[in-house]
Amino acid sequence: MAAAATSCGPRAGAPGCVVAAAGKDSVTSFQRRGPRASGPDGGCRRLASIAGTRPSVRNGQLLVSTGLPALDQLLGGGLAVGTLLLIEEDKYNIYSPLLFKYFLAEGIINGHTLLVASAKEDPAEILQELPAPLLNDNCKKEVDEDVCSHKTPESNIKMKIAWRYQLLPKMEVGPISSSIFGHYYDASKRIPQELIEASKWHGFFLPEKISSTLSVESCSLTHGYRSLLHFIQNIICEEGFDGSNPQKKEKNVLRIGIQNLGSPLWGDDICCTENCNNSQSLTKFLYVLRGLLRTSLSACIITVPTHLIQNKAVIARVTNLSDTVVGLESFIGSERETNPLYQEYHGLIHVRQIPRLNNLIGDVSDVKDLAFKLRRKLFTIEEYCLISLIFN
Questions:
Q1: In Å, what is the CA distance from 143 to each residue of 43, 170, 172?
Q2: pTM of the full predicted structure?
């Protein structure tokens, strides 16, 4: 079809004139005039150029995936760069390490730089235990079999428990391409060794840092927290994640993972007594950490044993200093573990806080009742609602 143009009078060539064109390369009439950014995406090219990221459709904030597409959906599309995600550990610390490892595995798949900190496990050993990604369509059959194998036979008998077992919108279960935002992982397999060797990561293992001598400062931070803050700050500055020293290659994102923060292993006593001597140490650490995150291309996930913290005021301050807070409630050791109404799931997941970025309110999910289940291969988050008992 030949191109057609309509003028708006004698000043048809003026900047404010609207020109409509039809053809193969036609675009919307309301197009900003002026120099365009390199690339087909124009002004959004700068954000999309970082692998494994995408801009939020709500506020334009750059997002990274948590490694669980279902959790990304609950958080408004993903975890915003420059923010902190706090995972409240379950009672026996069985399921919270999975979310921690999914976050790190997603970084390896997208070529992000990792910073892994722990006082319990060697970061090198944590990387060896990361789940394997499902990247090709050949794995879809295995995933479907995994879902089908966990369907209970009670659905075919006369007495049925009417649950609203329904995945949240866009919470499809299945493998996807590595070029798509967010991936699925096989919890029964380990990530290939060649992917770990090709990745760039930094480890902070607290027992190896104890021998170093640091003078006691008036900031009331424990030795472990001070050492970790210095380590994070050095990585951010030396590798240019704060923009002070431009990175030699393409821009990248730093994924920071801190395990069991606030536990006695970090030298903190908030889990030991209600009136502890270093009650401000953890909150001051989070305050400084958020400052580092806000001024750099980085995203952080931390796991905290909040069920062990004696002082509830400390929990409230920790929550306020975090951008996103997600709690895991396991059924292990509770009466729900043997309750037939909950036999399909392993626990509940609570989205306690959503960040407010560039707006006055956060993106709160309409779904309040969420449960999780660890299948043979997949960790899934689903919506549940007990309706009634139906007898046929």
A1: 38, 17, 11
A2: 0.78
